[in-house]
Sequence to fold (358 residues):
Amino acid sequence: MVAEALRLSNAHRSPHHQVTHTVIHTGQHYDQSMSDVFFRELPIPTPEYNLEVGSGSHGKQTAALLERTEQVLLKSRPDVVVVYGDTNSTIAAGLAAVKIGIPVAHVEAGLRSFNRQMPEEINRVATDHISDLLFCPTETAVQNLRREGITQSVFLSGDVMLDAVLSFRCVAREQSKILPELALSAKSYVLLTIHRAENTDSSERIKEVLDFLLEIKYPVVFPMHPRTKSRLQREPGLADYGKRLEQSENIRVIDPVSYLDMLALEDGARLILTDSGGVQKEAYFLEVPCLTVRGETEWAETLIDGWNQLIEPSRSSLSKIEGVWDGNGSGSRGKPNLEYFGSGHAATKIVHTLLQNS
Fold:
């Protein structure tokens, strides 16, 4: 959620707002390509605190985040704690704050996949029910909260990720060198990301996904997430898949990339294949067709007009890839309706509301 934090931080630094904004870096991504590069590449304030939590099981990581965030909050005593999204750090920071009487503001409130097997679903539901201010990116999210009896201090802010894409798309086009470095031309490749627990934690499931991916006949660029890479390296039964990916004529595995490079890869892709919620949205914002390897999505708006389609890793889904590829992008789809996600000024709305309620 780095880019979203940037937008809020910039709004905080407006001369009209006398607000001290303290950034806490959880240290979950200790790989430089997933962490430090964002602070070098984008005008994001240097974090005052780095919790250095690292990876681990959900229980271990959440417990460490809760304990270390509490220590920071007891020391700094902020007026409000702003949490983002649906990660372990989201619920941990929210719990740490509410237990010592500090109000919690949840950005990206109200999202629901309605799949309680997803760790992210548990995080987002629990965070919404302990938050004092709830900032919803879409009207669907507002309605989800209403069905759960949450109607007070709910605000339709729009999506801060839309703010980020609108702000940095041109910057990525000007500054990113990732396409020429990989000898890629625009609309000549599939961009692939796979990292969700539902696709990587089960040996049977990850084998199904990898078998499916290895059948794709088009050029594929695959920035491999540390979660996926770790699974392939540490489990003997998956070692062969790592070799097959390396030897594949179509799949090109690369290290994780920075925000601007990822935005450039998304912008230049002919098709995006992913299980990431954020990448689904960015594909929609950039008018790039997306196939999501999941049974459901919390971003229902992206499914309208077929810009995003949910698929299983099966032979029939290969024909969907072929259909989107041969359709040369948009096919018969209408233009994505970005108004579902606001006006591109969600961060400003959120800061204004925080100031009014603090």
In short: The first strand starts at residue 24 and ends at 25.
